[in-house]
Amino acid sequence: MNGERLATLVVVCLLLSSAHAGNVKTHEWPAKLASPAFEIAEIPVEMDVGSWASVVGNPTVRLRETSPNTYTGCTRLVIRCNTNVRVTASIVPTGALAGTYSCSISDGNIDAPQGAATLCATLKNPERVPAEPVQVAVIKVSFTPR
């Protein structure tokens, strides 16, 4: 008889505990914390400087007559960069000599950290030929990340 009572008592306890288990809120702590959260680490936040590129040295383009009324010159640009870039150029006459100016860059896709491109400038139909070297234009080199 003791075995039957013990089995009955176990079944009743299990039923009571399972009925009570439905009321337990498992997503809440059973007690409030006595203090605020504990700091366990400090993580530094750094900002990348973004994309940059620079021309190495001080290249100069010297125009020389390549055909009647056409003057052309080229130079090698060495570009340092922190990302792959596309280099482009534009030419701005200084006003020292009138004519039709143009420029171009070949191999303008530069891979980081360094690469080279060829920069050329052309002057067609200058109004006159200067007697001594004179700066006739400025080439502006730009880049876009690719």
Characterize this entry briefly:
The chain has 146 residues and is mainly β. 14% of the residues lie in helices and 39% in strands.
For the structure shown, list the relevant keywords:
single chain, 146 residues, mainly beta, Immunoglobulin-like, five-stranded antiparallel sheet, three-stranded antiparallel sheet, rod-shaped
Gap between N and C termini, in Å? 87 Å
Query: Could you say what the CATH topology of the domain at 53-145 is called?
Result: Immunoglobulin-like
Kindly report the oligomeric state of this protein.
single chain
- How many DSSP-defined strands? 8
Secondary structure: helix percent:
10-25%
Strand content: 35-45%
Outline type: rod-shaped
String of helices and strands: HEEEEEEEE
Tell me what the structure shows.
The chain is mainly beta. The protein has a domain of 93 residues: Immunoglobulin-like (Sandwich), CATH 2.60.40. Helices cover 14% and strands 39% of the residues. The strands form two sheets. Strands 1, 2, 3, 5 and 7 form a five-stranded antiparallel beta sheet that branches. A hairpin with a 2-residue loop joins β2 and β3. The chain starts with a helix and ends with a strand.
